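All the exercises in this workshop are built on plain-text protein records. A record pairs a protein's sequence with a compact description of its fold. The structure tokens are whole numbers drawn from a learned vocabulary of backbone shapes. Once this layout is familiar, the rest of the handout is easier to follow. An example says more than a description, so a record of this kind follows.
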Amino acid sequence: MASDSSQNTSPYTVYTDKHRAGIQIPVPHFQIKLIDSPNSNQEIESTSRSSKDRQKMDNNHRANTSNDHHSHKFLPKRIILVRHGESQGNLDTAAYTTTPDYKIPLTSLGLSQARIAGNRMHKLISENDTSDNNWRVYFYVSPYQRTRSTLRELGRSFEKEKIIGVREECRIREQDFGNFQVEERMNAIKETRERFGRFFYRFPEGESAADVYDRVSSFLESLWRDIDMNRLQQNPSQDLNLIIVSHGLTCRVFLMKWFKWTVEQFEHLNNLGNCEFRVMELGEGGDYSLAIHHTDEEMEEWGMSPEMISDQKWRVDANKGNWNENCPWFYDAFFNNLNTDLDEEGDKKADNSSTTCE
């Protein structure tokens, strides 16, 4: 234990700061002498006031800095998810028995599909530009050969000065089905998956869609950090378009996570075709929606329910952070026969339980 300052022969006295859970910190004696001075009360009060003033100024500065930072956060105009072009594995599943999944190449048709998709994306972005032709694109790509080849062909449609950058991102890779795949065994496994459920079924030596969901969730956290720190865009006059070149199931899981769809809703979603893409566009209120670029008929073909389509339409004009109370999977789908008026129910219970004295 620390001794009293009058008995301490060292040039410092020792005290225990209650904010440091028992850590002993040396304090110079001149602080103790200040307390013993005749004007100690005034000095302590003055010191306390100045300390509080400094703290208040620091808090105000941090608040202003935070507000200033968030006011200069530039949200991407669009987030475009695109599946790779036709691969050799799509054409003949026997390719997986001799070639690792990540090395499966595109077919000649797949290369052509990617070039056409690039032209369509360029037209979509340029014709709907709101920044006086000052738009830019940033790419994320799965490390698989078929996605990198798709990106290379997509890129032919964009001028070099329009591309801010590219990042290879392992977390948006294909679902892992195991190592070399024996065709007959994989057919039996996929039949089992249909009975078990696509989302939770885990392939032997591989992943389930739930596993993909976890790593896509991690990727989204990094993506939002990049957006929040303005790492992807520095010029507010530019419309930024993020293009994510990935795989069919990964794209569906991305949308599931983003729009908070349930497992049951995921199970009804159809896979994207080769080089088919989904456009999430920023609405006037700051929320993203599929309904700005895509029609009801398209979303219905993807396997989206009328309620899911209605939610996308609501998001077109919704303010970011608002809660769609008409979304059944946000609330009603989890409960049965909920009371709508708790006060009225409470009054009825009180009436039923009342007694009279005899």
Notes: Residues 1-38, 43-49, 59-72, 353-358 have pLDDT under 50 and may be disordered. The radius of gyration is 30 Å.
